[in-house]
Amino acid sequence: MDTATVQYLGELRTELVHVRSEQHVPTDAPVDNQGKGSAFSPTDLLATSLAACMITTMGIVARDKGIPLVGLRARVVKHMASDPRRVARVEVHLEMSGEGLDDRQRSIMENTARTCPVARSLAKELVQDLSITFL
Q: Which domain holds residue 102?
């Protein structure tokens, strides 16, 4: 079964459709690459997918191990490089409540984030800069 479809809409925009849920996501080329920046760019989605995968995987592990996962959120910063144009570095700044978490549980959450499927799938040349702040 297909995972998604992508249709070109013109003017450097596409529409992504998740086949199972029929959710639609528009994309646009970024302003620094001839687009309008009116939606996520494909490279924005790559960077953001890393954070989403970290959080999703942390949620699975936390649920399975009975670790309280409260207030987990991420900020993402994407750094581009040229020649060739590519994502060179992604900063993921995770914040979550540390209340009730011991050092072992915090370590489990950090290791889970660092080893999520997207993190393991990206090229080694792409720097993944992860910080976790327990509030």
A: 42-134
pLDDT band at 100 (very low <50, low <70, confident <90, very high): confident
**Per-residue pLDDT averaged across 52-57, rounded?**
98
CATH number at residue 129: 3.30.300.20
Between the alpha carbon of residue 113 and those of residues 31, 74, 117, 132, the distances in Å are 30, 11, 9, 9
Q: What is the per-residue pLDDT across 77-97, written as a single tens digit (0 to 9) for each?
A: 999 999 999 999 999 999 999
Q: For position 25, what pLDDT does the model report?
A: 97
Does residue 62 sit in the same domain as residue 16? no
Q: Where are the alpha helices (DSSP H) in 1-135?
A: 42-65, 103-114, 117-121
Is 133 within 8 Å of 74 (Cβ atoms)?
A: no
